[in-house]
Design goal:
It is elongated and about 35 Å long. By secondary structure, it is mainly β. The protein starts with a strand and ends in a 6-residue tail after the last helix. Strands 1-2-3 form a three-stranded antiparallel β-sheet, with no helix packed on it. Helices cover about 10% and strands about 35% of the residues.
Length: about 50
């Protein structure tokens, strides 16, 4: 299951925070743009601005 604002850690400290992380798969995703800052409801309905 994906985790938003996932903290990547080594043995002693947090080394990064990524937009979305899948810890079991050791996968991280970073994305840029205004669209991901909009409320989820506008994204789900397709009524959001594309910039």
């Amino acid at each position: 299951m994906p985790t938003a604002q996932y903290r990547v850690q080594d043995a002693t400290d947090v080394v990064a925070r990524v937009d979305v992380g899948w810890p079991a798969q050791r996968l991280a995703l970073e994305y840029d743009g205004l669209r991901h800052a909009e409320p989820v409801s506008s994204l789900a309905t397709g009524n959001g601005s594309t910039g």
